[in-house]
Amino acid sequence: METKQKIRMAVDCAMTVLSIVLMGGTVLFPDDRVHQVLGMALLALWAFHAVLNHRWYGSLFKGKFPPYRVMQLVVNCGISVCALLLMISGLMMAWFLPFSVGGALGFARVAHLVGSHWYYLFMCAHLGMHLGMIFSRMGMKGGTEQNEKVLLAKRTLLALVCGYGVYAFIVRGIAQYLFLRQQFFFLDLERGYILFAVDYLAVLVLFAAASHYAGKALLAAGNAHRTK
What we know:
Blueprint: H1 2-22, H2 32-52, H3 54-58, H4 67-93, H5 104-129, H6 131-137, H7 148-171, H8 174-178, H9 192-227
């Protein structure tokens, strides 16, 4: 079991790093094919991730659906839909499958832009809903076992990072991509790719924290309802 957990952690880390790298589009790489190969690698990791968590899919339509489980279902289905959209649109733009159908490449480019940003936010939410399990695998103590000053310092740092995440979300125009108000990806080369990665990492922390605390609230509400 310990080996399986290490494999899961390695896969999750690789998927997170690849996701941030790929959000930079093809600007980072001199050859577009590098971006495409990394995208296919990410989809392969997602397939492996699904195999490692096959029990969840086996119990998908069993039992009741309290609010937390509904939230989990929405997030996971959102990831699956976005992954499918990214796979289809990515193949339509792949160098080894040239398409000559009128408008196909234009559709693929726009679908890839929108799908990638929705996928990223769903991925952030997915990570947030599993933070407790991730910290447990990393051997990190829970908040109740920590010194109050240490806990306060961590929460303050989290608040600062989330605040910067809001700023990065606005400055990077992520909402513009999500709702197709901007149809072309823009990377400010003057700000550099390192700052781009920092900004998207802060956005990841922001949405992961939001989904983590939203999930805790839904679990608490569900438990309170059952005890009545």
